[in-house]
Amino acid sequence: MPGTAEAATATAGSVAAAEHGRRPRLRRVDGAIRRLRAIGAALPAGDGVAVFNRMYLTVTEAVRDRLTRPYFADPAAMAELDAVFAGRYLLAVDAVAAGHRPPACWRPLFELRAHPGVHPLQFALAGMNAHIQHDLPLAVVDTCRRLGCAPGRLAGDYRRINGLLAGVEADVREQLMPGPDVLERVEPLTHRVGAWSVDTARDAAWASARALWELRGSPCAASALAEALDASVGLLGRALLTPLGLTEECDRERDHECGQERGQECGQGSGRKHRPTRDRERTRDRNGAPGREPARNPAAGRLPGAGNRPAVGRERRGDQAQLECSGLPSA
């Protein structure tokens, strides 16, 4: 039948065209994956950027795997979005490497990447916050402009990635979250990371993308919105990276310093209190029962030649030791 043959030919042509358009985009995704691997290999494992980079590499590889399977309704469009999306993070990395300031949303992560009081899970979520809530809506708009389509074309596949990201985020939380034996001590961490959700972040990113798309005919308004989005996401990122405590090494060192000072109490570090030990000579009665302490010399504790002034030098030394134990600056 002529009609059937023509339809089959048209379908085959559409599939071939889609495959032809997808291949170069897949190569760009592969290039982004190579960059992510190189970045991870060059950074110390404990670096805050490295923590996020490992998680993002896992996500990008998972998306890349699904681009060649019957998973997305429009794999070519999603390959384009994935490449554009990754490019924004890589631009931030390149800016820092060149000595320039990255976008405001990325600054907290790059500035605090080596802070000893920030937990690795905070680094991972701060990177996700910057990349999803700021980079993703801009990447959606850029992708739609390149493809000549509205965001609605990407909506279905956008939601499909939500489930993929939720699984990765859950794995990251499970791997990085402290065990149940120390959860009581890291309660501030659980509260902070529990306030951030990848689903909520992606919903907000989609709303921002739609708003930016509607403002595409008003460049000044769109630019103002993008700038405000960058700043607000940066503020949230800085809150996510609030240092929550000292490292164990600092605690042990502080405990050691506190233990060296006799005559003062110090409850910092591990929570132990170092109390002065004083040998008391007690008189005993004939049955061995403890009696009263011997009477003190009223002149004891006075400096030679100081008249009636109390010997405050020892007290000041003790105060200085307590300041050092508490971590506060001394006068």
Question: Can you characterise this structure?
Answer:
The chain is 64% helix and 0% strand. The chain has 331 residues and is mainly α. It has a domain at 18-178 and 192-240. Helix 1 runs parallel beside helix 3 (75-97) and helix 5 packs parallel to helix 8. The longest helix is centred in the N-terminal third of the chain and has 41 residues, at 2-42. It is globular. The termini are far apart. Pfam families: DUF5995. Residues 1-18 have a biased composition (Low complexity).
Query: How many beta-strand runs?
Result: 0
Q: Give the H and E element order.
A: HHHHHHHHHHH
Counting DSSP H or I runs of 4 or more residues, the number of helices is: 11
User: What is the overall shape?
Assistant: globular
End-to-end Cα distance: 96 Å
Radius of gyration: 31 Å
InterPro entries: DUF5995
Biased composition (Basic and acidic residues): 278-287
Biased composition (Low complexity): 1-18
Organism: Kitasatospora aburaviensis
Brief summary of the model shown:
The chain is an all-alpha fold and 331 residues long. Helix content is 64%, strand content 0%. The chain has helices at 2-42, 48-67, 75-97, 107-111, 120-147, 155-176, 187-194, 198-214, 219-240, 248-260, 313-326.
List strands and helices in order, with pairings.
Layout: H1 2-42, H2 48-67, H3 75-97, H4 107-111, H5 120-147, H6 155-176, H7 187-194, H8 198-214, H9 219-240, H10 248-260, H11 313-326
